[in-house]
Amino acid sequence: MASILSKRKPYSINQSPLYKLQTRRKLASLFDLSVVELERLAKKPDNYRVFTIGKEKGKPRQVEEPKPRLERIHRRLFNLLRRIEPPEYLHSGTKGKSYITNAKTHIGSDTLITLDIQKFFPSTCGWHVFEFFHDVMHCSRDVAGLLTRISTCHDHVPTGSCLSQVIAFYAHYSMFEEIHSLTSSMNLVMTCYVDDLAISGKNANKAVLHEIRCILQKRGLRSHPKKESVFRRGVPKEITGSIVLDNGLKLPNRKHEKIHNEIRLILKLDDSKEKLALLNVTMGRLIAANQSDSALSRQVRSLRCEVNRIEKLVSFN
């Protein structure tokens, strides 16, 4: 996953080249384009390739992928926004953080609240994006409007752009800050991973969950009713694909089973080269999973031995 932080030193919002940008000419120059070229691109009706991808469960998901000319603009804007120093509570798209650090933050917590913002990208509208550029970045109205047009697809954040995650977060930056201020005032710990929120502490309860729902509703957002949970102390708690215990993390049983079945099927293949390529991919996933479940260490060692054996076989042949 791309990081919100680049290799270059991050800066505060008010140090961004986008901050207090007042003219379309200066905006266009950031993309090495003329104002006419940028305006023309922003007005094109077919800037996206739209298709659907299947899901194991539920409905197929629509993907809106920017075409090459717009993708270049999105990449540049992504690079500008990712250099902004992200807040401490953000774990997605942030260098040195991941879904694992997101879950680890809540190890040993008392009560835990988890919720998922429903249809986060499609529900993040043009006015949300405009508000960020105009009210938070203090761009002029015409600059904020042009940035909004090149950042959205059919008046919402596209689902398949490199820009999607970072622009959706900053479009709701004020909202996330409000939730963080609320939880901090109650001595609660909040983390955010894309559209997942987790809040833990002694004072985490259904009343807090209700207040957060109200904050979301002010933005035209809602939490997924089937993904809201309030966990008590001592009960295993699932956060972003990891089970949080009082003394550590482990993978859900379904993920253990999926890894086991995947390895079993690969080992049945006859083609050694294909087997080796797939095992190396699975090895990477297993090593990543091992960060949140030390019980996988033995399986990692066993699979590494099998990979080494097949590598020797392939090189011999």
Short description:
This protein is α+β, with helices and mostly antiparallel strands and 317 residues long. Helix content is 48%, strand content 13%.
Strand order of the largest sheet: 4-5-3-6
- Sheet bearing the most strands, described? 4 strands, antiparallel
Q: Name the average pLDDT.
A: 88
Helix content: 40-55%
Helical stretch tally: 13
Q: Indicate the structural class.
A: alpha+beta
Strand content: 5-15%
Reading the helices and strands in chain order gives HHEEHHEHHHHHEEHEEEEHHH
Q: Please report the total strand number as a whole number.
A: 9
Q: Distance between termini?
A: 36 Å
Radius of gyration over C-alpha positions, nearest whole angstrom: 22 Å
Shape: globular
The low-confidence runs, each spanning 5 or more residues with pLDDT under 50, are: 1-6
Quaternary state of the chains: single chain
How would you describe what is shown here?
The chain is α+β, with helices and mostly antiparallel strands. The protein has helices spanning 24-30, 35-43, 68-82, 99-104, 120-123, 126-136, 141-151, 164-171, 173-185, 206-218, 253-267, 272-290, 297-316; strands at residues 48-53, 61-66, 111-116, 189-193, 196-201, 229-231, 237-239, 242-244, 249-250. It has a 4-stranded antiparallel beta sheet with strand order 4-5-3-6, covered by helices on one side. It has a 3-stranded antiparallel beta sheet with strand order 7-8-9. A hairpin with a 7-residue loop joins strand 1 (48-53) and strand 2. Helix 9 packs antiparallel against helix 10 (206-218) and helix 11 packs antiparallel against helix 12. The relative contact order is 0.12. Residues 1-6 have low confidence and may be disordered.
